[in-house]
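Module 6 notes. Inverse folding takes a fixed backbone as the condition and produces residue identities as the prediction. Think of it as a translation problem where the source language is geometry and the target language is the twenty amino acids. Below is one complete input and output pair. Work through it position by position during the lab.
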């Protein structure tokens, strides 16, 4: 089979065979297909799409391009979790110890932040000593001992995805539901979980801006999981405003700890409770009511907080940060945005606030950029809050004024105040299964 014929078939809107897709992924992985031909097929997929069957075959071929973690010797049902990313999205850091405290094993391989969205690994690395580079044997041992581990993805998992993403990034072929789905699910399936709960963010601060886009992505990924024999469900959650108050690595870790102590933002706690209950239901065979009660108990009893302290210590971090936030990095400078008028906060544009945080040094614009774990933004108000003129809206934590002027401009434009309160928001919008 000539690869040029594969390109032509997709160009003409026809479905590809499993053999053709295997040829594509094998050629990308071993370098036998040149970048210009691979890019041509990617563009044809963007323009012509893929069926659910093609997308499932593509994902399977990407999984088979590398190693697949075997967790069969770890007792219990393993339930994985993945988020499509958003501003202030710290759910995984809270959720993993909560669900583990409920007796369900949560293996978690995470990524770094890019663009306006933050990365779980960057946040955890703000904890002094925290190791993300556990070996697979260490990963499995920790899962057996304490029920969860949060580490970086190994290079051996779905290596075809890394090569394809590098091409997509420079050929305007990122925005494709089949390609996004296969990219995400190839890595999650290679992690070896028995079931998977997905958090698909929707709104201004997410990659999926509209509900229709988020629903299409959720349905595509759930179908892939089903085809692979892994029970997969997705929640669509709201990302018009940041999730919680903190944006920035150490600041978000503090908010995670506050949530585990029962003092976290309502929106973050709500998402953790709903996703956690579903993970417990899948992993422990509990009904929804019993699963919800177990999650609530793990949060209120301190068991989830204790499990997070164990996770930190097992991965080389300083568990004293749980009670002493001064052991986390802290930025020396402060700048403020105050309310220009009285009224109700009707808008906190998540993407603008995420970009502003990056300007301070909290994120990266390209892979490999350094991050400052101390800097970031704290929103002192939420959507719907009533404010008076001069009230503090947003506080910037900066180092030596880096990026402050532009960040202040972005933060100011991100906030809208009106005479009437906005409609009530649903933090969990839909459940796809």
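Target side of the pair, the amino acids:
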């Amino acid at each position: 089979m000539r690869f040029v014929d594969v390109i032509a078939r997709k160009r003409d809107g026809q479905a590809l065979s499993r053999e053709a897709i295997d040829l594509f992924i094998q050629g990308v992985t071993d370098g036998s297909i040149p970048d210009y031909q691979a890019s041509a097929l990617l563009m044809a997929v963007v323009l012509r799409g893929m069926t659910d069957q093609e997308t499932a075959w593509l994902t399977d071929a990407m999984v088979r391009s590398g190693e697949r973690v075997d967790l069969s010797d770890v007792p219990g049902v393993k339930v994985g979790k993945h988020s499509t990313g958003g501003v202030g999205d710290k759910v995984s850091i809270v959720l993993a110890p909560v669900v583990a405290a409920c007796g369900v094993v949560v293996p978690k391989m995470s990524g770094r932040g890019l663009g306006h969205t933050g990365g779980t690994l960057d946040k955890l690395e703000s904890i002094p000593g925290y190791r993300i580079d556990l070996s697979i044997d260490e990963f499995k041992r920790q899962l057996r001992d304490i029920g969860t581990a949060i580490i970086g993805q190994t290079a051996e998992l779905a290596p075809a995805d890394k090569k394809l993403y590098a091409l997509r990034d420079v050929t305007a072929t990122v925005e494709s539901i089949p390609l996004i789905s296969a990219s995400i699910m190839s890595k999650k399936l290679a992690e070896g979980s028995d079931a998977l709960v997905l958090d698909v963010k929707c709104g201004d601060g997410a990659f999926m801006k509209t509900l229709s886009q988020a629903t299409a992505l959720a349905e595509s990924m759930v179908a892939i999981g089903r085809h692979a024999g892994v029970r997969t469900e997705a929640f669509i959650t709201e990302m018009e405003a940041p999730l919680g108050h903190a944006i920035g690595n150490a600041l978000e870790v503090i908010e995670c700890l506050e949530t585990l102590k029962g003092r976290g933002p309502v929106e973050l706690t709500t998402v953790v409770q709903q996703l956690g209950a579903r993970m417990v239901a899948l992993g422990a065979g509990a009904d929804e009511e019993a699963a919800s009660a177990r999650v609530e108990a793990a949060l209120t009893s301190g068991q989830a907080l204790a499990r997070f302290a164990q996770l930190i210590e097992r991965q080389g971090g300083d568990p004293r940060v749980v009670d002493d936030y001064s052991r986390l990095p802290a930025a020396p400078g402060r700048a403020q945005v105050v309310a220009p008028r009285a009224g109700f906060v009707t808008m906190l544009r998540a993407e603008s606030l995420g970009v502003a945080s990056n300007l301070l040094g909290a994120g990266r614009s390209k892979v490999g950029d350094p991050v400052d774990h101390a800097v970031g933004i704290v929103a002192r108000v939420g959507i719907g809050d009533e404010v008076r003129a001069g009230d503090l809206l947003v506080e910037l934590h900066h180092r030596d004024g880096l990026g402050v002027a532009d960040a202040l401009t972005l933060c100011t434009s991100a906030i809208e105040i009106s005479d009437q309160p906005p409609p009530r928001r649903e933090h969990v919008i839909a459940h796809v299964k």
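Reference fact for the lab report: The longest strand covers residues 195-202.
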